[in-house]
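Meet my pick.
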Amino acid sequence: MEAGGSSSSRGTGTGEFTVYGLTQNDDKQLVDSTIPFRGSVVRIIRVSKEEDVIGTSTAFLVFRGEKRSLFLTCDHNFMKKKMGEVIRFSNGDKKNYPVEKILYRDGARDLLLFSVKGDVPENPCVEFSTDKIEQHDKVVIVGHTTPSLPLGRNGELVPVLVNQPGLYRGRISTTFIREDIQKYYEKITYNFPVAGESVGGAPLFRDGKVIGVHLARDGRNGRSDAVSARTVLQVLREWLGVGEDSQATIKELLQIVYDKIKPKVPNGMLTCRPSPMFLVFASNIQSSDFFTAVEFLLSNHPIFLCSQLSYHPIGRS
């Protein structure tokens, strides 16, 4: 069994061994289909001022750009304001990547999109499927568990950050759509066990593509819920104002989001009047080193380089 995987089993009339309604072959196919994307599922960590872990949850990589990456999770995984959350990949380096910004959150449908700035490990973005979801579809959740064990000095329970995500698989029980004038909301339910609240925000895979975002498990009846990828698509449409008839995919809409948050490059040019000190400096360096020296001074000591900087817009009178 994979870490965090299903454990109950029963036999069929033909003597075939099953796990939560899945044959051994079904189970293997589901597990194998997640292999390319397991590194893209990250743990969200919230720490106290003393840097003690006080909460964890799950998110996954949905878009990667040159300067930042975008991750999707549940709204309930974040406080009303960003509280210094970091993410950690399961590549073993234990490096923390600070959450840069909450880009969008929808409390009613429990979805949240956030960004992480800078280089992150080279993992593929998940692929979404908005095809129809059928009862009894075979699915698997990839999410991070955080069991509490009595490891404190006086036997206090301490959260343990399991490095690799757990896999939880089974079949879809039902789907239902709650649609009103303003909100489209499709939920997916399944009756196989998912361990712990920290798995909230994990991707729900079918045939290697994400069809939903795991929300939580209802402890009263053992049922687990996810919000569908079609709801994610609708949320992005509403946020970006692209209209119901838009044919843009989730990936294409995330590209629009990324383009909106990229720093704006001024449509113009800067001119520099060399300072007297720089003219003396330039007369004493070799021509082959000139551009290297200018680049260094622009980055570190622009006042030494220029006595006056001027901005000239292009295309304006």
In short: The longest helix spans residues 229-240. Helices lie at 24-33, 229-240, 250-261, 276-282, 290-300, 302-305. Residues 191 and 222 are 6 Å apart (CA to CA). The longest strand covers residues 166-179.
